[in-house]
Amino acid sequence: MRFELLGAVTVEGGGVGSAKARALLAALLSSPGRAVRPEALKAAMWGEEPPPTATASLHNHVARLRRLLAEDDRPGSRLRAVPQGYVLDVAVGELDAEVFVRHHAAARAAHRDGDWPAVLAECRAALALWRGDPLADVPALSDPLRAYAAHLAEARLQTLEWRFDAELALGRHQGMAAELAALTAAHPLREPFHRQWMLALHRTHRQAEALAAFHDLRRTLVDELGVEPGPSVQAAYREILAAPEDEAAPQEAQPSTPPAQLPADTGDFTGRTDELAALLGVIRPCDPDAPRVAVVTGMGGIGKTALAVHAAHRARRDFPDGVLYADLRGFGAGDARRPRDLLARFLGDLADGGAPGTGGALPLPDDPDDLSALLRQALHGRRVLLVLDNAGDAAQVVPLLPGRGDSAVIVTSRRTLADLPGAVRLPLEPLGAEEQHRLLVAVCGQQRVAAEPAAAAGVLAACGGLPLALRIAGARLAARPNWPLTALAERLDGAGDRLHALSAGGLAVQDTFAMSYLAMRDSPQAAEREAARAFRLLGLWPGHPLDLVPAAALIGRDPAPAEDLLEALVDTHLLQTPRAGHYSFHDLLGEYAATRAAEEVPPRVRENGLRRLLVWYTVTVAGTAALLAPEGHPIPPLHEQPAVPPLEFDSEEAALRWCVKELPAIKEAIRLAAARRWPDVAWRLAAGLFGYAQAYWWTGEWDLCLQEAMACVEETGDVQGRAWMHSRLGVAHGMADRVDPCLEHLGVARRYFEAAGDLQGQAAILNNLSGLHHALGDHDLALEYGRQSLDLHYAVGDADRVATVLGNLGDAHLGAGDPAAAIACYRRALGMWRERGLLTSTARSLTSLGEALRTVGRYDEAVAALEETVAILDRLGDRGTAADTLEVLARTHFERGDPASARKHWDRALELARTYRLEAKARTILAGLARLDACESACARQSEDGVA
Description:
With about 950 residues, the protein is mainly alpha-helical. Helix content is about 65%, strand content about 5%. Helix 23 (about 525-540) packs across helix 25 (about 560-570), helix 28 runs parallel beside helix 31 (about 700-715) and helix 36 (about 800-815) packs antiparallel against helix 37.
């Protein structure tokens, strides 16, 4: 069977039905022999927001495509369903795109070796496969399909380039000019086609047209991109000029030399395409009535100076009257440059034979304001670019700004310079993954990086997208040609050793960071010294983001003054703020802050700061448990109050979102509490995640937290903590159906609570034992434990948890064959949860009620209860539990004789189960779908028999 994508999508030369069918086939063929997820297929067919019916419609399209691809001599279908999605089996040579890629690779290798006959043969074979634009009749609705088509189109253009290179090398340039003329018109910025067209014209004795082609290309590149033609085009131009029949061009008179003070450009400057375009857009002539001032800001080592100098080199032709450069020394060794000194220097640099206002032969005034006026006068009517590097503050820059006119200014600073008037700010972020890789290749070589991709990835991760760090890493490798990348990657992977490893010669990442930090620590301004103190304390928590309130707890200040300190650090790019009220370190800056904390903060101050933060987290986590799992055993409060008020949540959804977002930080808090032997904090944090675990037990994260806290209470001998950890571990094992460890932990916890006389703890354990024995099928014992728990709750006046016990009693009654008693218990519990407005518990009771109603054939009531459950779970974002509920709802529709609704809910349940990797649930759902398929097939056969 032959599949074609290099043009309209076809199978065996024929069309493929509807546009959605073609999109489905194209998405499968873009990954032949590999699983394609249903989400990717739906995106290809309907775009990034498929309709609610997309899943069912996808199944129908898959079935039709299977019929189209059916082969008499092949058992089974090429199109297979697998747990991850669908796979289309394609043999070698059956897909035109795959054949093209093989010829393309062979042509690349031959081109590299200079084997021109082989290049020509492979390119012709590759190009012969094309019938038009790739995927020509497929709507480009998804990013992956658009990218795949663009990749194929680019590979075709590259193949054309190699073909023309081969024909020129073999002397077959006759007849090429017309084809290349069309290609240059279609691709006006693609320089290889222009170079080949120039050479084809030149070698067919059409030198004037060849030179005109060069000048047309140059004009286009300069006007549209502000760049000159590349080296290969320039070489072709020189070849044409050097032809014997051409005469030398007359020499032009040399103009006077304007100031040209730029440092050398970075020869292998990499990335920053968008930032460079934005910077050039600010400084190039546009509005003569306003100064053009661009401020490039960012943390130390982010590449501000490199970008500014590179942009200035690119734009220097726009400033024929010169480029002035000065390091203002706002950060680093030496005193900051005074504006008066710079004004005098610039006026001297611009002097032209003592012309008035330039400072050439006339004495300069003493007053800085007068000097600024003279500089503005000297720049008037001129097009000069000023590059003011490493500014400390706006006061250094303002006197150096031109007035109205065509001059422009680029300022770089580690501060945002928010008080600099009329400036456009361009903050720099760390390099993206692709730019990082390109820079590493540029500084240490493609072959070296390609030979060790895993080590290269480790180096990139350690450098955190910081250009200075990458260049230092490259310099170390360049100085050690016998080192494998693995050697450097291992040094950079050492805990706390990265900053030491990221130094070479006179360059060191930590020295760059120190310039910013020391300027604040040693500042004469108290506010900056206080911000430096906050930086050190934040170094106690370097690896996780912090919101304003917990950050305030860590640094020991109220939220309002703490925000001022944090924003001061943001302004100096010692701290990042991805969104308002949220703060984090760049990875390497966090390591530097941790070093400052270890070396400059006294041990007692370090302990107090961490204790404040961990107590705040403990109290806030306990609040989420009280809201998300009010039926649970209430956690005894800490004996100390948090330094700043804990968060309060206005809804269960908000509390659950916070737990999910902060889980990495909570895990780190448990680890730190255990390391410092603070069991009171460790076990309360782990126990408080019970509310989170109601929705996300299946991730296993809660188990890990409980185990770490358990190790801490065992090591420190905390008896109350042992009781609570055994209780919570029993619950965690029960949620995951691990019966034996659940029973063991609950038994130990019960003995601890009995010894302590904790009646609430005993009642909670008895309730859990009731639920466990119901799951084991021992319904009489489940009922006994449930009744004992209910009696204890009433005895201690704990009516808040009665609804939970009623739910377990309902489960036991249902298992014992008494659905009426079960329904009564569920309805009582549901009424209590509704009265208290608790969504999670309401959803749990509705699910149980729906299951009980289904067993007695009250399908309409069951469906209503289960559909309400699904709506609540959607609000909460609890997708794992939703898969369970949807599966029960699908079975209910199946039993009531509604196969269409059953399939819809099973399909949605399966999608959730696959997304959240609930393998056991997915198998249950697939079994239900198989029963449904079998039932529908049987009904179809009966219908056919009846017709016959």
